[in-house]
Amino acid sequence: MQEILEILEILEKNGRASVEEIALMLDKTVDEVQAMIKKLEEDNVIVGYNTLINWDKSNKETVVALIEVRVTPQRGRGFDQVAERIYRYPQVKACYLMSGGFDLTVIVEGKTMKEVALFVAEKLAPLESVVSTSTHFVLKRYKDEGVIFEENNKDDREALIL
Amino acid sequence: MNLSGMIKPSVKNMPPSGIRKYFDLLNEMKDAISLGIGEPDFVTPWSIREAGIYSLERGHTHYSSNAGFVELRRQIAKYVKRKYDVEYDAEKGVIVTVGASEGIDLALRALVGPGDEVIIPEPSFVAYKGCTTFTGATPVAIELKAEDEFRLKPEQLESALTPRTKVVILPFPNNPTGAIMTADDLQKIVDVVKDRELVVISDEIYAELTYGKKHVSFASFPEVKDKTILINGFSKAFAMTGWRIGYACADPVLIEAMNKIHQYAIMCSPTTAQYAASEAISNGDDEVDAMVREYNRRRRVMVDGFRKAGLDCFEPRGAFYVFPCIRSTGLSSDEFCERLLKEEKVLTVPGSAFGDCGEGFIRATYANSHENIVEAMKRINRFVRSLK
User: Do A73 and A133 have their domain in common?
Assistant: First the structure.
């Protein structure tokens, strides 16, 4: 069990870690690690291997908005069905059910603010169960997925002579 | 005026550090990887740094009592009880020092002088010998052996003891070998020292960094608790080297003596660091666990790398050092390290820097990023193969 958590910890930080490397780090055989990762993928514990990109430094123009959505839950299906109708759109990068003053957090990505606003006006807001939306545009990402974007990782330790 | 003639002999005759030349070379290099510095590459966890900053914001910039804030001493006593099952009087049995190093120096200065002998198992941290020499006492080395997994054997200690022995230093988990002493190993040492008139300085600064086996404190053996000075600190476990904050726990008689020197030399440890240490010791466990898991992975990668390069490598169970034997290369430790640095730009430290019996070994630390370790092991492999 401890190894499973460690594999996840390693892969969460570095999706490119090879099976061989992980085996070495955990003192396991390559076959053992391979089998554990396969099982984790099959069980949807590992659901994907993404790359974390600071798009602000690329040429691509993107706009991201966080939208608070209030919805009416449906009898027998709760929030799941309306959530699904929302998260199926490829523009939706993330969708969470929330506690508190609203129900769903929907993260939407588009090329321009207008594009995102139109998506909200034309696709999200008109949905039957959606009561209201409130759109907040992201101005700057400082940290995402546990990674600080502008961190200086240079090793500047001075030598201590002993 | 002949200033150099003013320097007292024990200081003047202290040879310069054997590893300075490597760091001088390193400074001139690009793309060199240093496996030389014995400190965590991790930055102090944010909550600890934030506690230091907050104390400054509130204007807590004054002295503390000489032995350290009583609240921090209480937390230390609680921590030592929780972690190592040893009880100390927070008010009289704990002193907060400027790093564990000051604790070692205070203990030696309080206890020994000319005519006394201090037993130092080697290879080990170089300050034991240095601090002993400055007091005028005589350091007596015990050579730990690779075949004993660099543990101190009771026979070795027995035969080094003389009527002049006043202090025995126990440096485990060990820098530079990574050796640890199990409860059984320690019990045998307890049996040797329990009825003798001497003090044991147990330097347990790497106590939190053990892999597979939980650290056992020498002070946790009731037969020897009163003659043991437990030295520990925040540098290694909490990645707080630059804060310079450590502590010593012992019988109030010993702490009072150490505090006398501390009060004249230091007055009190830096208070910003004490506030930060307070946060570390009360809320830092999860961060420490995460760092230990990471060190353990790197440790395996490094041991495997040395073995694949064809070097005998004892499996270290503590600290963050690997201590492979390089005799098969036909080079001395010094030659090996110098050539490795010049030819492959990887800095390691010759074992001989940690005592004569360290000759034939080198020390490499895995307190460096996984990527750097992988690259360094590649270079070391190439270097060792080029020697054949």
Answer: yes
